[in-house]
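HUMAN: Mind making up another protein with tokenized structure?

ASSISTANT:
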Amino acid sequence: MTMDSKNADYLQHMFGLNGQSAVVIGGTGVLGGALCTCLANAGAHVTVAGRSQERGEARVAAIREAGGEADFHAVDVTSVDSMRTLKDAVVAQRGGVEMLVNCAGVNSATPYEQIESDDWQRVVDGSLTATHYGCQVFAPQMASQKDGGAILNIGSVTSHLPLSRVFAYSAAKAAVVNLTQNLAREYATKNVRINVLCPGFFPAEQNRKILDAERVENIMSQTPMKRFGEPEELAGAAILLLSRTAGSFMTGAAVYVDGGFTAMRF
């Protein structure tokens, strides 16, 4: 065996996802779509789950064209019944589900004193409640499987830093971190690991809608790397947290991928 093949075997052992099934809820978005691609590139069969069939099927086509395995399932993240239907479909097709990424999320830039109750609830439901439904539906399924599973929730750098003036989103993402830690403790002895990935500022759809030029400049000036993150830069941390081997003793962790923003704000 050559050193190159030995290295490749070691990396595959540590980080490879061959033969495993991954569901990415919110996989039709910018960040969720990038996570779909990275998991497929690491060997997983990926179920791209979201509202937009057009964007979902486009992501599936791109993954298949690159030699990966993927399919699309529509899901309404605000409906626990829709989430159960998704889980049942994946289990029927794949025999189980080893990985879940809860990447759904919506935002609102309405000033705090002006935000309507419906808009507040929309943001909370789209981030916190959707994550709750995903965990509530998929964690017991994973606990029933011989090899268990791993759940990756998506938080935000705003989970604990009052930076972006998006009050409902920040509150919901802070609750996602707290929920992750509580569920990680609950499932720690059931062979289900649950972690949360907290991105800094990325060019995701919700950020494009709410960030004006002044806010962009302010964020760039405070981020040590002086730039936004690229969606693909979440891949390494995501694979680590989802990997059976590399991440085997990690649960309840909140990992920040933010260009150094968090460290500069403590």
About this structure: The longest helix spans residues 117-143.
